[in-house]
Amino acid sequence: MYNEIMDAVTRKLDALFPEITVYTNKVEQGLKEPCFFVGFLDPSETPLLGTRYFRSTGIYIQYLPGEDEQRTRELNRVLGVLMESMEYLSLADGTLIRGTKRSGEFKEKVLTFFVNYDRFGRRTGKEMESMNQITMN
């Protein structure tokens, strides 16, 4: 599931910004700016009743704008596009998931965009047997 979400995010960024490189791994050498870095922030899962669960998948997208005289305006433009366009993602199987808690942060001339793609799910497998009858005195 995590790779599917990561793939959907990178596909969306490629469609929105075809001229900008998207990295999902740490780059030791040869970093080409402008670029995006994409990663997960503390994914978690909470069990619910029976076989159901709630999975929270936080994503960060960092944008390094490169050398630009209008750097602040470029960061603002990219933040606006991400806020509007990252609300819905389409997974490879066509499932739409909605991004919540979208926010941006500017630090040291870098934009970091945060979004959560949370989902409820159900585990497949053997269901627990329920009691057939009970006798009380």
Written account of the structure:
The chain has 137 residues and is α+β, with helices and mostly antiparallel strands. It contains two helices and seven strands; from the N terminus they run αβββαββββ. It has helices at residues 2-16, 71-85, and strands spanning 21-23, 35-47, 52-64, 88-90, 96-107, 110-117, 119-122. Strands 1, 2, 3, 4, 5, 6 and 7 form a seven-stranded mixed sheet that branches. The model has no long low-confidence stretch (mean pLDDT 89).
Helix-strand pattern: HEEEHEEEE
State which percent range the strand residues make up: 35-45%
* Average pLDDT: 89
Q: Give the biggest sheet.
A: 7 strands, mixed
Query: Using DSSP, what is the number of strands?
Result: 7
Helix and strand composition category:
alpha+beta
Radius of gyration: 20 Å
Distance between the termini: 50 Å
Helical proportion? Answer: 10-25%
For this structure, the quaternary state is: single chain
- Low-confidence regions: none
Approximate shape? elongated
